[in-house]
Amino acid sequence: MDNALILVAEDEPEIAAILTAYLERDGFRTVCAADGETALMHHQLLRPDLVLLDVQMPKRDGFAVLAEVRHRGNTPVIMATARAEDLDKLSALHVGADDYVVKPFNPMEVVARVKAVLRRTNGAMGGPTVLRVNRIAIDTACYSACVENDDGDARLDLTLTEFRILEHMARA
User: Fold this and answer.
1) Looking at the structure, do residues 77 and 115 belong to the same domain, yes or no?
2) What are the two backbone dihedrals, phi and then psi, of residue 67, each rounded to the nearest 5 degrees?
3) Run of H or E including 82
4) CA 78, CA 111: separation in Å to the nearest integer?
């Protein structure tokens, strides 16, 4: 779970700053997006380990972003929104959200939910098997690494010793 990248898609700067501060205090890396289109761009380029997603955002709302994230893969998504109606919660969960928190929320609870979802999606207490540093993805379960490019992934041909050094540097 250490070093996991969390995409905070939130159009209110104060809320984004609070979430970012709490997440970073717990050892997470963060990137923020103030609208749905930027969130999708960050998701595609940075491949975060989890997305904290507001529903009411400019350009593309959270439901559209969630649908596209689900179309792309299985990145865990926690909806964080002021919409407390059961229909909104059910819609988000039906489209594929992993969890749903209602504003105003306790930032420590959101961090705990992030940890719980990551723990569940990445294997109990084992943490993620893929470490990411910028565009380098290191799969610790398969002992492989690649550089992620817009044209595709370029696999790195590493000896076991080189792989372990790269993994150690990524964790540090």
Assistant:
1) yes
2) -60, -40
3) none
4) 11
